[in-house]
Design goal:
By secondary structure, this protein is α/β, with parallel strands linked by helices. It is built from 13 helices and 15 strands. Strands 1, 4, 5, 6, 7 and 15 form a six-stranded parallel beta sheet that branches. Strands 12-13-14 form a three-stranded parallel beta sheet. It has a two-stranded parallel ribbon with strand order 2-3.
Length: 410
């Protein structure tokens, strides 16, 4: 069973690179001819060749047809509880993004609509786009759902079983702030969804709940040491604790010290748990049978508990052909972690996504955040001219690292 997809990211970069080289080379040739006082005929010939080349290159730079699947994580006023700040988007930025999707006429669809279109020929609206949220943070209930509801944007929420909190009462959200029953300062932004909130989301129907595995873990893949836990990195490497704790671990952000693996614990080469066989000290890599059994458990149990098996979202966007095959056998219609653009001709069982962040240039600037998202969408759809604004923003972000923080803090 093959799960082949074209690595569209490399193709985009190659096309933009070749187009840029051609443009610069054409300009250089024309400038040299003019500088040397060449006959007008030669200049006209060079200019004609350049225009013909650009016309041909235009077909390279515009290849519409991709379907962007946007990936968010935390939508929060208080992202400090997560050591991965790149995963945090403010509610204001998220609201601006959702409004932009509607105002620019994009056809926002559900993940299952995309699957139906790719596998069964269902018709999609013009310029379709999908919105997804990973990990099931509490702020998805507090902020993301009210904003999605405000703009009528459907989405898919991927949750990991071990990171669902106990609790049978829903907590206040931005809707309650608007209603005047609580203040924004009183909202709790830290932690994960509980079962009551998941059930409320499911009943409303605007957001689908789909599996993101069990423990979002990693495994050692060899004996080579690559580092150790320190006071500075143990939170960012929380997976070291997660894998040693069986069952619920949604309160990990409250830990004041490593509860299981202490500071000084040696780290070995590792990988996302559903992407590679694990290393066993007593016998090397786990056997094929053991690896497949572990994969099957992490795919079957979430589907059974959540009652959903349309699409599986691989933790850390990492997987392998063995895992994809077993996902199909378990009953998932599609899984994430593709490198394509969700086009005809790509494997319809593989969904490719694009991550969305905040502070694209190192600090918050709402207009720039909206521009960056629009550029990313257009590149994913196939308009590669928008690659250059993205490149410029990336270079600007690198430059801002050398700017004193007091000048850019917002």
């Amino acid at each position: 069973m093959s799960f082949h997809t074209i690595d569209r990211r490399r193709v985009r970069a190659l096309r933009c690179g070749l187009w840029s080289v051609f443009v610069l080379a054409s300009l250089l040739v024309i400038l040299v001819l003019l500088d040397r006082g060449a006959d007008g005929g030669w200049v006209a010939l060079a200019l004609t060749g350049a225009l013909v080349g650009l016309a041909i290159g235009h077909r390279w730079m515009k290849d519409e047809g991709g379907v962007p699947v946007l990936t968010y994580h935390s939508i929060s006023d208080d992202g400090g509880w997560l050591p991965w700040r790149s995963n945090v988007v403010t509610p204001e930025t998220f609201d601006r993004h959702m409004r932009m999707l509607r105002e620019r006429g994009l056809g926002v669809i559900r993940t299952r609509d995309l699957i139906e279109a790719r596998q069964n020929g269902k018709t999609l609206p013009p310029r379709p786009v999908v919105v997804t949220l990973d990990d099931g943070a509490l702020d998805n209930w507090v902020a993301a759902l009210p904003i999605l509801r405000r703009w009528g944007v459907p989405a898919t929420l991927f949750v990991s079983l071990d990171f669902i909190e106990n609790g049978n009462a829903v907590r206040p959200s931005l809707d309650d702030v608007e209603a005047g029953t609580v203040s924004r300062d009183a909202l709790n932004w830290r932690g994960y969804l509980n079962w009551a909130e998941i059930e409320m989301i499911r009943r409303e129907g605007l957001v689908d709940i789909q599996p993101h595995g069990i423990d979002h873990g990693r495994v050692d893949i060899g004996p080579r040491e690559v580092g150790e836990l320190t006071p500075a990195n143990w939170r960012k490497l929380a997976w070291v604790q997660w894998r040693a704790i069986k069952g619920p671990k949604a309160d990990w952000h409250l830990w004041e010290a490593p509860p299981v693996a202490p500071i000084g614990t040696k780290l070995r080469e590792n990988a996302p748990a559903l992407a590679a066989p694990a290393w066993r000290d007593e016998g090397g890599l786990e056997t094929t049978e053991a690896f497949e059994a572990r994969l099957r458990e992490h795919l079957e149990r979430p589907a059974r508990v959540l009652g959903q098996s349309d699409v599986f979202c691989w933790p850390e966007n990492a997987t392998c052909d063995t895992a994809r095959r077993i996902a199909c056998e378990v009953g998932y219609r599609a899984t994430t972690a593709g490198d394509g653009a969700n086009r005809p001709g790509e494997d319809p069982r593989v969904i490719s996504r694009v991550g969305v962040g905040d502070r694209i240039i190192g600090f918050r600037w709402p207009a720039i955040e909206a521009l960056a998202l629009w550029a990313a969408i257009r590149v994913f759809q196939g308009n590669l001219y928008w690659y250059f604004p993205l490149l410029a923003l990336g270079l600007l972000r690198k430059a801002m690292r050398f700017t004193p923080r007091r000048l850019v803090r917002r």
